[in-house]
Anoctamin (Nannospalax galili), 819 residues
Amino acid sequence: CPLVVSQSAKRFNLFLKRRLMFQRSEQSKDSVYFRDGVRQIDFVLSYVDDVKRDAELKAERRREFELNLRKTGLELEIEDKMNSEDGRTYFVKIHAPWEVLVTYAEVLGIKMPIGESDITRPQNLPLSYMLGPVKLPATVKYPHPEYFTAQFTRHRQELFLIEDEATFFPSSARNRIVYYILSRCPFGVEEGKKKIGIERLLNSNTYLAAFPLHDGQYWKPSTVPTHVNERYILHKNWARFSYFYKEQPLDLIRPYFSCLDLSLQTPLFFPEPHCSLGSAEICDPHIGGQMIMCPLCDEVCDYWRLNTTCLHSNRDGGGFNHLFDNESTVFFAIFMGIWVTLFLEFWKQRQARLEYEWDLVDFEEEQQQLQLRPEFEAMCKHKKMNPITKEMEPYMPLFHRIPWYFASGVTVIFGMALLLSSMVSVIVYRLSVFATFASFMESEATLQSVKTVFTPQMATSLSGSCLNFIVILILNFFYDKVSAWITKMEIPRTYQEYESSLTLKMFLFQFVNYYSSCFYVAFFKGKFVGYPGKYTYMFSVWRSEECDPAGCLIELTAQLTIIMIGKQLFGNIHEACQPLIFNWWRRRKAQTNSEKLYSRWEQDHDLQVFGPLGLFYEYLETVIQFGFVTLFVASFPLAPLFALINNIVEIRVDAWKLTTQYRRPVAAKAHSIGVWQDILYGMAILSVATNAFIVAFTSDIIPRLVYYYAYSNSSSLSGYVNNSLSVFLIEDFPNHSAPLEKTDFTTCRYRDYRNPPDHESKYVHNMQFWHVLAAKMTFIIVMEHIVFLFKFLLAWMKPDVPKDVLEKIKRESAFLAEG
C-alpha cells in the first residue's frame, strides 16, 4: 500500500509540475498536446462531413470506432471543423495514458532500459583521426547513455528506469502502440462479419488520414521547456545537404523513426587503362586505313575503312573502348567478385551490431507471423486452431486462394512477356533506323580514312538506349500499380507474407526491365550475325545487329551509363520535387483563412504520406543499383563511382523529405532486411558468372591473349588486327545484300575466324576459332572457381556476429539475472 500511495503522489506531483509550467498563452500552432497542455498527442485521425448517401453509415462507423477506442483506455479530443484552416475538416486527437502504454508494451514485447551499461563504447581505432571530418560530435552520435534492456512487463515495473512516466516511452514506441490498437479496433458488424481496423476505414474514406505528429517545426527548437523537438535536432544533424560528407546519426534516427534507409555504398577502384598495339593498328593509315570492311547493312550501306573508328579504339585519340577493355579488366572483374563477398560478409556483422544496439536480438519472425493482417481477418469466414498459441484464429482454405494465385502468376508471366516484347521492339527500332543512320553518316569520306566521332552503330545504340530508358520508366509506372493490386487480392495472412509476395513480383519485373537490354548487348548482340553472304535475319526482314568494329563492350558501357545515371537522376529529382510540389499545392488550398490557427496536426495533415511501402521502394531502388555495380562492372568500372555519388545525394534527399515533406511514419520493427538479403546473395553469385562471361565473350582480351601466346611470330600483338579479321570475296554477295554501288574492290573484311574464299572449306570456322573458344571457356571456369573458393573460405572464417557484440549480449543477460 505505501508503494501504491507513493507512486500516486509522484504522478500527481509530476502532473502539477507540468501543468504549472504550461501557459495557455503558449498554446500555439506548434503545440503537440491536448488543450490541457499536459496530455501528449500520440496519433491524429481526420475526416470531413460526407454529403453522399453513405454519410450516415460513415458517421455511425466513426462513432462505433471511437467508442471502442475509448473502451481500450485511449483518450480522445475532437477539434471541430470550424477551428480548422479549411473550415471542413475534423481532427480526432488521441492520447495513450500510462495504463494503456504499459499493457501494450508488454503485448508487443517492447524492450526498455533496466540499467546503464557498464561496457565502454569502442575507442578510436588507429589512424581513425584521418576520418575526423566525416565523424559527428560525440553528443550527436551518442545523445543518450547506453542501457541494458529487457522486454517490458507491467508486473515488474520496479526493474525499469522509470523517472518520468510521460517521457519513459519514446514517441516512436507510443505511436506504434496506438497504431496497433487502431489496426485491431472493431467498428461494427456487417453481413455477419466483424469489421475491424483503421485501414478499412481509410480505404472507405470514413477517415481521411491517420498519422502520428512530428515533434514541431524542423527549422526551430521547441519553446515548451518540458518538450524536446527531436525533429529539429534530426534535421539539423542529418538532413542538411552541407552535411553530405558526415556519417549518419543512427542514435537520433532510431528513437524518432525506428527505421533506417540502408543504402549500399561502394568503394572506388578503377583499372589503369593501357594502350595496346591492337588499337594502334586500327588507327594506322597503312594498316587500318588499307582494310576495306564489308557493309554493315544490305544494299544501302557502303564499304568503309577500318581506321574511321579510330576515335573509339585508340587511347591517344580518345580511346573510349580501350579505356574499359584492357588487360586490367580481368583483375578488376576478379577483384569485384571478391569485393561483393567482403561487402555482404561485413554487412552481416554490421546488421548483427545494429540488431543488438536497436534491441532486436530476441525478436523472432514468429512474432510477426502471429500478427495477422486486419484485411485477412476481415475476409476469413473459417477458423482453426493455431498449433503455437493453441487459440482459434481466422483461416482461409487453399482452394479459396488458388484463383488469385493463378491470376497472380498469369499477371507476372504477362508482365515478363511485355518487358521482353518491349526489348524486342527497341531492337527492331535499332535495326530499322540503322540503315537510315548509315545512309547519311556514310559517304565517300568513309573510304578516304576520315575519322568520325559517331559511327552508325554508335548513333543507333545511343538513340536505342535512350528510347529503352523511356520505355523502362513507363512500364515501371504501370507495373507498380498492377503488382500492388494483385498482391492485395491474394489476401496474404501476415504483413510479412504480403511484403515477401510483393517483393518477389517487383524484383522479378525490375530485374528484367532494367537488365534485359544489358544482357542482350553483353551476351547476344553480334554473336549470331553469321557472315557476309549468309547473314541471319530477325523475322526474315531485318539483318541481325553487329557490334561496333571495336567490339560490343563500348555499346554495353553506353547502355549502362544511360540507364544507371538516368535512373539515378530521375529518381532523385522525382523524390525531391514531387512531395515539394504537392505539399505546396495542398498548403495553398488549405490556408483559406489566415485568422485561424494553422495547428500542428493541420500542418502534418497537409504533408505527403510515406506509406507502409515507402521503405520497400527504397530497398528496391538500392538493390537494383547493387545489380548495376556488380553484374556488369567488368564493362563499366565507373559504376561504383556513380553509385557512391548517388548514395551520398540520396541519403540527404531521403533525410530531407522524411523530416520536412512527409508525415511521420508509424514505427516498424524488423531484425534484418529480410528477403532482400537473399536477393543480394543471389545477385552476388550471378555477378561472378556475368562478369566472367563479359570478359570472355564481350571484351577482346581473350582473343588478344590467344594471339599473343599462340599465333604471334614476334611474341607481341603486332598483326593482331589483321589476324582477327576474315576475308570475303565480294562476288559471293547475294543480290539482295550486295551494295547498290559498284566498286573496284574484290574482297572485304569482317570480324570472325573463318577460312578465306580460296580455301577448300571456305567461310567455315578455322582452328583459331576453336582455340579462342576453348580459352574463353577455360577462363570462365578458372575465374569462377577462384572467386567461389575465396567466397566459401571467407564465409567460413568470418563469424556472422562480431565477438564484442556476443560479449555484450552475454553481459546483458548476466545483468538481467543479477537484477
Notes: Residues 258-271+326-700+798-804 form one domain.
